[in-house]
Amino acid sequence: MGSQDLASGGLCVLTKTNMFIKNQQGFIQIPILIAIIVGILAVGSTGYLIKQKVENQKAQLLEAVEIDKKELGPESNATPNKPIGTSKTIPQQSVSTNMPVPSPTLVPETKQDTGLLIAQCEAKRSVDYNDLVSKIDSILETTLQNTRSQVNARIATYETDYEYCNAQAGKSEYEAKLSELDKLFAKLDTLESDIKNRSGGFLMTAEQLSRLIASERSKLIGQIDTLQREISSLESSIRACKTNYDADVKTEKAYLESVVIKTQQEREKSLAEAKQIVDQEYLQCISQ
Questions:
Q1: CA-to-CA distance for 219 and 173, rounded, in angstroms?
Q2: Cα pseudo-dihedral 42, 43, 46, 48, rounded to 10
Q3: Closest-CA residue to 63 (of 91, 23, 85)
């Protein structure tokens, strides 16, 4: 179409030029000739540019159709009407859907993963609970051991005080008098036979021997009575020392027993708190 316009335009210019040359009787001026040549070139260039623009518009139209087809996908498989004057065909292209298909390896096995997570969380809860129990027992045992040591130290002090009290009360004298009393009782038991053995070389009547035995027994009994009174006096002071010592030791043992009971109660309370802590951590673990 552009070629036909270019040819007709050139023909028209040549016809007018021939007519002008005939009117000038074969003579033409150089400026007029240059103007004619420039006009021919201008007309030809204009026709070429018009043709080129038309072809560019056709190419852009085809490119736009292909882009629309790719964006529309399979629903645009119908072949569109081809522009007039072109023999190009638009290639058919299959476009996959934009929805991603998850890979089988990425699909989690929910039951198996949940079971594994629960097992791991239960194992962690057991380990954490046992660790807390060990720490609680260690702390309470240390506290109880320190209390026992303090109680034993005080009892040792009471024993020292008790020994001092006994010394002040005359315990050594008391023990010596007890030993002497035992000897007097033993002597009293053998008094009659001893007197008879001693008097074997003397001429004594039975009455004299009986009086001697009675006299000696009376002396021994008097010594035993005096010694028993002294022992009783000493024993009262010694008994007071023992009473005070026993009371102090009993108080310390009762205190230690109360500490043991409180320690057991504290252990039960701490274990309950430890179980609550690990249970909360377990719930957080399985909820992740």
A1: 22
A2: -110
A3: 91
Task: Annotate 155-205 with DSSP letters as a single string.
Answer: HHHHHHHHHHHHHHHTHHHHHHHHHHHHHHHHHHHTHHHHHHHHGGGS---
Residue 114 has pLDDT above 90, yes or no: no
100 is a domain residue: no
User: Could you tell me if 149 and 277 lie in one domain?
Assistant: yes
End-to-end C-alpha distance for the chain, whole angstroms: 75
Residue 104 within a domain: no
CA 193 to chain centre: 92
To the question of pTM greater than 0.90 for the whole model, the response is: no
User: Among residues 61, 89, 117, which one ends one of the domains?
Assistant: 89
208: Cα within 13 Å, side-chain hemisphere: 7
pLDDT digits (tens, 9 = 90+) for 16-59: 445 444 444 444 456 565 666 666 665 555 556 666 665 776 67
Residue 30 tokens, joined: 């150089």
